[in-house]
Specification:
Length: about 150
C-alpha cells in the first residue's frame, strides 16, 4: 500500500504533466508494481532485461496508449516533432539499458529518446526514483527541455 507522500508525488507529477485525473491512479499502480518487484527490477539494471521492465512500467502508466510497447509514430509537442525517430527507439533503449549512467543522466537520455506514445514523463520520473533508490520517498526528476536539463 502506498503512503500519502507517494500518492501525492504521483498526483503532483500528473498535474505538472497535465495528464489527467485517471493517470494518477495508473501512476500509483506503476509505483506499486515497482515496489513489489523492486529486487528483480533492480537486478536487471544494466542488462537488456531492464528494457522489458521499462515497457511494463510504461504500460501501467498509460495502459491504453502504451500496451503495444515502444511508439511507432512521431510525437509532437507545441507543433514540433519531439523525440527520436520511432525506428531507432528499440536500439536506443537497448543501449540505454546497458549503459552505466547516474539517475539524472539516465532520465535525460530516456526523455530525449521519448520511447512511448504517452507517459514518458511519468514513467521517467518513476525510473529516476528507482535508480536513486528513492521510491519510498520520491523526488521530482530534473526538468527536461529538449536536450537540456535543468533543476527546478
Amino acid at each position: 500500500m502506498l503512503s500519502l507522500k507517494q500518492i501525492k508525488f504521483c498526483a503532483e507529477e500528473c498535474e505538472r504533466q497535465r495528464s489527467g485525473e485517471l493517470s494518477v491512479g495508473w501512476m500509483c499502480e506503476a509505483l506499486e508494481h515497482l515496489l513489489i518487484n523492486k529486487t528483480e527490477i533492480e537486478s536487471s539494471i544494466g542488462t537488456e532485461d531492464f528494457s522489458w521492465h521499462i515497457r511494463t512500467v510504461a504500460s501501467f502508466c498509460e495502459p491504453l496508449q502504451n500496451a503495444r510497447g515502444f511508439r511507432k509514430t512521431p510525437v509532437y509537442f507545441n507543433d514540433y516533432s519531439f523525440g527520436m525517430d520511432a525506428e531507432l527507439i528499440p536500439q536506443a533503449m537497448k543501449n540505454l539499458c546497458l549503459a552505466e549512467l547516474i539517475p539524472e543522466d539516465f532520465y535525460t537520455e530516456f526523455q530525449r529518446i521519448h520511447p512511448f506514445q504517452d507517459s514518458n514523463g511519468r514513467c521517467g520520473a518513476l525510473l529516476f526514483n528507482l535508480m536513486k533508490n528513492s521510491l519510498d520517498n520520491p523526488q521530482k526528476p530534473p526538468k527536461f527541455i529538449g536536450k537540456i536539463k535543468e533543476n527546478e
